[in-house]
Amino acid sequence: MTMTPDAKRALSTTIRALRARLLTDLRDATESTYRLAVRARDAGLDAGARVRRRRLEDWIAEQVRAQGAAARGKALRGADDFRKEVEQRAAYTLLNRLVILRLMEAPGDGGAPPLRSPALVTGGWNSRAYQDFRALAPALCRPSRGTADDDGTEGYAFLLGLVFEDLAADLPGLYGPSGVADLVPVPAATLRHVVDALDDPALASCWTDDMTLGWVYQYWNDPEREALDAKLNGGGKVEPHEIASKTQMFTERYMVDWLLQNSLGPMWLAMCRHHGWTAECEADGTLTALEARRVVWRARREAGEVDPTELMPLETDAERRWAYYVPQPIPDEAVRAAPESVRSLRLLDPAVGSGHFLVVALDLLVALYREEARHRGEVGAHPQAGRWTDRAIVERILTHNLHGVDLDPRAVQIAAAALWLKARRVAPDARPERMNLVASNLSLASLPDDDPALVELRDEVERETGLPGALTDTLVHALRGADHLGSLLRVDRAVEAALDEHERGPRGGGRVLQGSLDLLGDAAPAAVVAREVRPRAEARASLQKRLEDFLARHTTGDDLGLRMRGEQLAAGVRFVRMVREGTYDLVVANPPYQGTSKLADSKYVERHYPLGKADLYAAFLLRGLELVRDDGVSAMLTMRNWMFINQYAALREYLLGTSDLRGLGDFDRGAFEDVPDEVVSVAVSVFTRAAHGAQSIAISPTPRDDRSRDSARTPRKRAATLCHVGRHEFDPAALKVVPEWPLVYWWDSELLDKYVTLPRLGGSARVRQGLATSDNVRRLRRHFEIVQLTLATVRGSGSTFSRPVQWVPHIMGAAGIAWFDRLTYVIDWGRFGLGLKVHHERQYSSYTKRVPAEDVYFRTGVAFSTIGASFSGRIHRYPGTIDTTGCSVYPADVSSVACLFNSTFARRILDSLNPTIHYTNGDVERLPLLRIENAGDIVSTLNAAFVSNEAHREPSVEFLRPGPSPWRHAQEWAQLAVDRPDGAPLPPHEPVYDPEPPTDHLSFALGVALGRFDP
Predict the structure, then answer these.
(1) I need a labelling partner for 638 at 20 to 30 A (CA). Which of 481, 803, 937, 1015 fits?
(2) Is the CB of residue 648 less than 8 Å from the CB of residue 618?
């Protein structure tokens, strides 16, 4: 059962409140228990407390000393910082233990028994387990006020400790000793408060949801992420160790389902066709029934019979597993390259976080395993039926199918626990040999160059491969970046680069790594090639083996906090093996969204992922395709701006030109319920590492022009996604005709043909950037602030003057204003802007980049809105200078371009080319030059209405006196005129006047009385 939206909000509130309470209470308890403000010898502590205090202080002192040279000039952390770290560790350890225990106490699907009973956290002090304990051991539950044995919980904490010890057998990392955090005391009142808070009935549906652990982890970390947001807003940068906290964002379940069902789903269908099977979802009519129900449900939504937030009902488990799958063509190449069995499929989440994708994938894979067993007939008494039992299936999935890498070791432990819980729900006796999860914090950054293991590594590598120690050091130094790069670290390429460098160098000379050439020319070419390749392969294998041996000495295998049936490889070895390229059938992820300009250290990403250097998610798009095999699939939920804007044009060209875009889930803004602003606008892209073949599919569950920001926005999107609102079929290759290849998947063939055949605006008109004042307060004024400014003055301004003119019209942005630019601002242009130019010359060594395009100043053009929700254009009524926000076009026919800019056609095109709120000159230059008939007549009619409006608008420089205005109705008529079909006559126009409000006359009378206006 999935948690309800109300329960999710309650969980967020609860976890944030518990975090604050725990951190405060544990800090106070640590202070009062150990009297840290007083010297130890004067604190009056008993022997046990003195020992614990000494251990705590010794650990803190060691951490302070250990910073040493690793800080590299950065501010050192003090003792209080490390004390807070210990208290925070104790706080989240306690919370995680209680949350996981509460999850284990909840019943499973279909009334399955809980993993642990009787309940202890459920019900708290009224729970069945505690009541039984009181009956069996009343002496342990009797309050002993004032004695050392009294923990204040009437034995509840003691019983909880026994349960934790029992759970430590399977989950030692979570329930076993937690080191220095065990020294932090937990007050009885605090423990009771936490248990009672988790037992709130409002959270009931949370305890049957597979995703609860991940949400708890995110809500706990939210304050840290918000603090980092504030740091960035203040001009700071994200340090390497802060990347995990800054970018952690748990994915909404519906997007996880859509991504997996449209990547793993088609792969399964291809596997079935590869073997000649008919997938059960096709054979039993599941897909057909879902599509028929969607048609009916969409019709009911459009008719208003069901609320837009109401989910389409699903009737079976099979429907739930295929509900988000969008029917699509399965290419023949995908069938040919499909895995032989779901047992051999390898899936990686390279930014696994707390394991959301892997938990859902486990659920899907269990069903596919069972179906494959039926297809193969290996059920019942079949000799191979043993490998398809629930236990065998779960253990195979965890040990072979699923893989995950993340920066944050706590997140990886949560992911491991979530998978363990899910596996136990399916098969309570499951004991996997290992889990393929790893945190990339290998802690090699502080490793000294004279470390014995590193010295030994140098010697062994040089002895076996001839690779000099300096190149081995370079390779190890590259691995130091694993702490903050994670799966973006190209270990394979670092090895190859070291080998290449050795081959080029004078010492290598090709002697060791390349086979000796046949100087007599007797050998066949194939034999020569074999001798050249084999030693290189041997050198690579030897280097990788020695590197793994080295990492095994510096990392452990108990980092996941689980007890496995087999031996878990060391974390460093797991990491190096799991990031090998060309290894996986499927890569899925919600990678971090973080612009590299805000990173304190982005050199590696910029150097190794030049096409994706603008943002970490863009680098992950590239990395995902590197990690999959040929014909493998990489599906990621990322920001959607890579699909459109100029900054990612080269990335688009590479991705669309070298890979097959199979599907798009364009979720746009509002996809995350907990992200209320417009910053996060996302899409799922499903790429196959193969040449483009069949038609691609996309969905856009909410209209692209939907600007709503209400609380029901995400539920509407979720419901629309389920019933496949906004489905499109498109050919990405056909979109290449649009400059920069934006993914305008919703363009039909008619619009594409029109775009191709019409000339571009940039080919016939000048689109120019305006000047930057760098100080608007100093350089600009409102027109009414200049006493001597007159209508004749501003209309007489020109590129040459008969007399000096200091204040001239300055055209800025004007969101929402169309057709004509009102005179609002004037700029100090005395001596042709000499003061402004001198300022820029001194500040930037040249003024021409800050004051460009002087040759078009004081000429009539058409300004367009660079920032705004809707594109529009306005004619320069008072030619002057233009601002960076008042970028303008200077065409031969001003009326035609003004009509084009204000047409629905232009808005549709520009909103497609750049769906952000910032239109650029490049976007406008790509606009097709659609001819609008009678443009001169339209502008002439509008001009008459505008003149009348300005004469009656008091803030206008043309104001005469109050009066009615025809301007609003004239604009409505003009919109009909510019949007009419080709060949249609102009709609009739009769001026319709809006009466002026009475306050206009009152204001005018006051102005007359003050001498501002003539009566």
Answers:
(1) 481
(2) yes
Rounded (to 5) percent helix, strand, coil in the chain = 50, 10, 40
C-alpha–C-alpha distance, residues 289 and 281, integer Å: 10
From residue 934, alpha-carbon distances to 431, 633, 861, 937, 941 in Å are 78, 52, 19, 5, 11
Question: pLDDT tens across 543-552, in order?
Answer: 777 777 777 7
Count the neighbouring beta carbons within 10 Å of the beta carbon of residue 253.
16
pLDDT of residue 554: 66
**Under DSSP, is residue 20 helix (H, G, I), strand (E, B) or coil?**
helix
How far apart are the C-alpha atoms of 393 and 769, rounded to whole Å? 62
Gap between the Cα atoms of 262 and 118, Å rounded: 40
Per the DSSP assignment, residues forming a β-bridge with 628 are 584
Q: Specify whether the CB–CB gap between 668 and 722 falls below 8 A.
A: no
Mean pLDDT of the 727-747 span: 93
* Model pLDDT, residue 843: 87
839's CB contacts (< 8 A; 6+ apart) are 774, 775, 847
Distance CA 855, CA 868 (A): 27
Largest CA distance in the chain: 111
Region of residue 380 (left: phi > 0; alpha: psi -120 to 50; beta: else): left
| Angle CA 192–195–199, to nearest 5 | 135
pLDDT in tens, 65-113: 877 645 555 567 788 888 999 999 999 999 999 999 999 999 987 778 9
For 384, the token pair is: 């191979």
- Residue 336 has a CB neighbour count (10 Å cut-off) of 11
CB 665 within 8 A of CB 698: yes
The one-letter code for the residue type at 512 is V
pTM of the predicted structure, to 2 decimals: 0.86
pLDDT class of 51 with cuts at 50, 70, 90? very high
d(CA 603, CA 615): 12
**Cα 703–chain centre separation:** 21
- The DSSP annotation for 919-979 comes to --HHHHHTSB----TTHHHHHHHHHHHHHHHHHT-TTSTT--S---B-HHHHHHHHHHHHT
919 near 871, Cβ under 8 Å? Answer: yes
- Confirm if 925 and 764 have CB atoms less than 8 A apart: no
Q: In sequence order, what are the beta bridge partners of 685?
A: 636, 664
Q: Is cis: bond before 759, omega within 30 of 0?
A: no
pLDDT value at position 425? 92
Q: How confident is the model at residue 696 (pLDDT cuts 50, 70, 90)?
A: very high
**CA gap 442, 406 in Å, rounded:** 12
Task: Note whether 849 and 832 are within 8 A (CB).
Answer: no
Instruction: Say how far residue 684 (Cα) sits from the centre of its chain.
Output: 10
CA-closest candidate to residue 5, choices 309, 258, 319, 284: 309
d(CA 266, CA 955): 63
Confidence band of 533 (pLDDT split at 50, 70, 90):
very low
Amino acid (1-letter code) at residue 80? D
3-state class (DSSP) for residue 148: coil
The whole-angstrom separation of Cα 733 and Cα 652 is 11
CA 812 to each of CA 43, 77, 457, 942: distance values in angstroms, whole numbers, following the listed order: 69, 48, 64, 21
**φ and ψ at residue 686, rounded to 5 degrees:** -115, 105
- Nearest-angstrom CA–CA distance, 644 and 641: 6
470 vs 740, higher pLDDT? 740
477 — phi, psi (to 5°)?
Answer: -65, -35
Q: What are phi and psi of 143, to 5 degrees?
A: -60, 135
